[in-house]
Amino acid sequence: MVLGIETSCDETGVALVRGHDLLVDVTASSMDAHARFGGIVPEVASRAHLEAFEPTLKEALARAGVHLEDVGAIAVTSGPGLVGSLTVGVAAAKALAMGLDVPLYGVNHVLGHVAVDVLVHGPFPEKFLGLVVSGGHTSLLLIRDIATDVVELGQTLDDAAGEAFDKVGRLLGLPYPGGPHVDRLAQEGSAEAFAFPRGLTRPKDQAAHAYNFSFSGLKTAVARVVESFEDAGADVPAADIAASFSEAVADVLITKTVAACREHEVDTVVIGGGFSANSRLRELAAERFNAEGITLRLPPVRYCTDNGAMIAALGSAVVDADLPPSPWEFTTDSAMELTRVLAGT
Ligand code: KG4
Ligand code: ZN
Predict the structure, then answer these.
(1) Residues less than 5 Å from ion ligand 2, measured at CB
(2) How many whole angstroms from 162 Cα to the centroid of ligand 1?
(3) Within 10 A of 127 (CB to CB), how many other CB atoms are there?
């Protein structure tokens, strides 16, 4: 039984996994404390983890009906993320692992967003793509084994997909985090109203950036359109802007993912991360993957946002692969590389 601990951002997550079975998954979020600042405040997040960790752990054990002594290994997010938040989780995990005398694995948060799907849809195929989209990441990965063989095909060169939505939410006067609000507004607008740019999709980008993403030009284009209506004293057509913007983001993500499937002869894609809740992304993925004969594995939204189950799932995969535990002196790694599964190895 693997105990998973996640504290990389604003969610304190604790979960227990046995093999591919999720026993319990408990999450405490400090998002309400950040909302009025219009973004995550790192010090507030670290303090919230400190306060939430023990109650969250106790609740997880109680709900699963197990004791700490039943835990066989511990996995904790060592990066990427906010260094103060990560430190709370890593310190707690080290104390528990030392006290219980069990192996400790410092694991990669981004790969956890992919690994969690095993708990929902069962074992992974021999080769598949992982598309991790959230407020902090937009990465396309070619995976043969989630614990030992991950190749990064591309990532965002500037904003993450969720971050771009949050910024557009702010431009349209919506509350933070803007992503879900922009998504909702988009349902009432026309995706064809504005021809927004698709970053890094021109033929000349193919050589160096076939699978990289860029959303900052798109965000600027949205800002220009909003300004032009405001300057003219006209009402800003927020729903049409939201719909056309959502279309541009989903189109780029799915077009590049389909191209990578063709190039690497892959027929399965796992999508993870909080942004995978986006309705246009879900629709377009279902539509285009279906046309290409690609199987889409998309966990329910509660496993796409940050949680302990994703870390326990990756920990379980690492144990299965017989990888050595992280050394005691391993630390947080706020910029941990995506191809690195374990800290300190
Ligand atoms: O994975 P997550 O919970 O936290 C990070 O690790 O970032 O992702 C949250 C991000 C935020 O930027 C949020 O605005 C965005 O995902 N998001 C959405 C939607 N739901 C969440 N963006 C667009 N449409 C949504 N439905
Ligand atoms: Zn995340």
Answers:
(1) 134, 306
(2) 5
(3) 15
- What is the residue whose two structure tokens read 């800003």? 236
Q: Which atom of ligand 1 is nearest to the CA of 277?
A: 26
Taking the CA atoms of 249, 254, 256 and 257 in sequence, report the sign of the dihedral they define: positive
Using the mean position of ligand 1's atoms as its centre, give its distance from the Cα of residue 184 in Å.
13
- Alpha-carbon span 42 to 13, nearest angstrom: 17
Please tell me the distance from the alpha carbon of residue 158 to that of residue 332, in angstroms, as a whole number: 23
Ligand 1: residues within 6 Å at CB? 9, 134-136, 162-163, 165-166, 177, 179-180, 183, 273-275, 277-278, 305-306
* Closest listed ligand to the CA of 282: 1
Contact between 105 and 325 (Cβ < 8 Å): yes
Query: According to the model, what pLDDT value does residue 339 have?
Result: 85
Does the predicted TM-score (pTM) go above 0.90?
A: yes
User: Token pair 């349902």 is at which residue?
Assistant: 187
Among the bound ligands, the one closest to the CA of 278: 1
Q: Which amino acid would we find at residue 176?
A: Y
CA 167 / ligand 2 centre spacing (Å): 18
Per-residue pLDDT reduced to its tens digit, 25-79: 999 999 989 988 888 999 999 999 999 999 999 999 999 999 999 999 999 999 9
Question: Looking at ligand 1, which residue's alpha carbon is closest to its atom 1?
Answer: 274
pLDDT digits (tens, 9 = 90+) for 193-240: 999 999 999 999 998 999 999 999 999 999 999 999 999 999 999 999
Q: Which of 31, 159, 165, 253 to mutate to test the pocket of ligand 1 (most atoms within 8 A of CB)?
A: 165
List the one residue out of 1, 4, 257 whose CA is nearest residue 112.
4
The label of the residue with tokens 């095993």 reads 118
Nearest Cα to 136, choosing from 4, 296, 11, 283?
A: 11
Q: Nearest-5° angle of CA 241, CA 243, CA 248?
A: 95
Closest CA to 4 of 84, 97, 69, 80: 97
% pLDDT > 70, the chain: 100
Q: Ligand 1 centre from 78 Cα, in Å?
A: 21
Beta bridge partners of 271: 131
pLDDT tier, 130 (very low <50, low <70, confident <90, very high otherwise): very high
